[in-house]
Design brief:
The protein has about 290 residues and is α/β, with parallel strands linked by helices. The chain is about 25% helix and about 25% strand.
């Protein structure tokens, strides 16, 4: 049975199930902004193992995650991107978050669906964390493709852009240095801190700083934003904080459990999520590949 939108849209609406079914049941031209962070087709399972202390010793409590390997990755994504195009409003935008392994193939697919002229930017999210390779340049960035349904008309709130420091403030003068500059298409931002308050423990959680920038600049208060690969629900938390309405979809029970804990105390419509209990406290997590 296809999921249908709730009759009364709350601040956050969460669907548990196949996102293609949810998308096919969603009204055309009804969503202002779509941000998605699909599986990256890394070839291994994205997994976190939770540890707890028992008798003074750290022991494994449970593992959770999802498979991240596809024989036909483009075939998996293509019908979902067709539906994403259909449900976007005429002035809506898609932000497609991927990495170096598949970005080239995904861009060709999205060019076919949206049209090459609808491609506006490739944003490089650069971070500096984790191990370094000794046999090649270490991969420390993700790719975010921005497509506007109408390349001549879309939401771009320039005044909402954060100012960042000049790398060489002495070359621009004190007034400009104090004001800072607007970001380019390369965004330097740390990953979610392994020990920070923002951490949910979900294996592929993205930082609020990156998502907030997209929501602030590419939507307006009261708009409807959607993430149909919702994971830990970062877009929902961002949307709620910034006064947007949000629809989240995920087929992973662990993702729903994490969101139930994360959204505790908020007005949320949980659709198809019965029987999934909120996840317990964070404890100590370790990424396992």
């Amino acid at each position: 049975m296809k999921s249908k939108p709730a009759s009364r849209r709350p601040g956050i609406e969460v669907h548990f199930g196949d996102n293609l079914e949810v998308l096919r049941g969603w009204p055309s031209e009804s969503v202002d902004l779509i941000y998605i962070d699909p599986p990256f087709n890394t070839g291994h399972r994205q997994l976190r193992t939770r540890f707890c202390k028992r008798g003074g010793e750290k022991v494994a409590e449970r593992s959770y995650g999802y498979p991240d390997s596809f024989d036909d990755f483009s075939g998996f994504l293509q019908p979902r991107m067709v539906e994403a195009y259909r449900i976007l409003k005429p002035y809506g935008s898609l932000f497609f978050h991927i990495d170096f392994r598949e970005v080239h193939y995904c861009k060709v697919m999205l060019d076919t669906i949206f049209g090459r002229s609808s491609f506006i930017n490739e944003i490089i999210w650069a971070y500096d964390y984790g191990a370094r390779s000794k046999v090649k340049w270490s991969a420390k960035h993700d790719n975010i493709l921005w497509y506007a349904k109408d390349p001549k008309h879309y939401t771009f709130n320039y005044d909402e852009m954060p100012r960042i420091p000049y790398m060489a403030p002495g070359l621009v003068g004190p007034e400009k240095a104090a004001r800072g500059k607007t970001p380019t298409d390369v965004w330097w931002h740390t990953i979610v801190s392994p020990n920070g308050r923002e951490k949910t423990g979900y294996a592929t959680q993205k930082p609020r700083g990156v998502i907030d920038r997209i929501v602030r600049i590419h939507s307006k208060p009261g708009d409807l934003v959607m993430d149909f690969f919702a994971g830990s629900g970062t877009l929902g938390e961002s949307a709620h904080s910034l006064g947007r309405n949000c629809v989240l979809v995920d087929s992973n029970r662990d993702a729903i459990a994490v969101m139930k804990r994360r959204f505790k105390g908020l007005e949320v419509a949980w659709i198809g999520c019965g029987g999934i209990a909120p996840e317990k406290g964070r404890g100590v997590e370790k990424k396992v590949k």
